[in-house]
Specification:
The protein has about 190 residues and is an all-alpha fold. It has one domain. The chain is built from eight helices and no strands. Helix 1 runs antiparallel to helix 5, helix 3 runs antiparallel to helix 4 and helix 3 packs parallel to helix 6. The chain starts with a helix and ends with a helix.
Amino acid sequence: MIVILQKLMATIIGSLLVGIGVNGFLVPNYLIDGGILGIALILHYFFDFQTGITMVALSLPICILASLNERGYFLSSLQGLLLSSLFIDLLAPLRHQFSVSHLAGALIGGVIIGTGVGLMLRYETSTGGTDLLAKIISGTFSMNIALVIIVIDGLIVLAGFTVLSMDSFFYSCLAITTVGLTTSFFAGHQP
């Protein structure tokens, strides 16, 4: 029971941090992140779609595939996906609360998002999306999951390059790197 409560609290706090990082620091500076969140942000910038709802819609095919292959991880990740998407959309008013440079937005947003994602991964949950896809691909083809995530995020960043200004692209790369390093730090310390 304590483990379930810890996982739930990690998911709630991690999702809240992701929502704060995205809305307080990435969106005001027109930056993207990797994964499904990055695609959802690109769609938000060009079509004004709600980022959280878009994340859920884009993740549905991956979730269906994952439910067939990685049932335990799927259930935890579905909870993380739904909560982080909810917090991203609920905290949209934060987009007008902070005024920081692109550099500060990339670094602060990256640390906050990375802390949230790392906390969730530490308790064996995540925001779903490309994490689930990477887990399936790495298991199917016996590949290193980190390499699969880097390739997927790299493709999303390249897609961002075609639609973002050079400054936004550069600082998005910095944000993604900061998210990755922070996630690695927090996910590596087991409870």
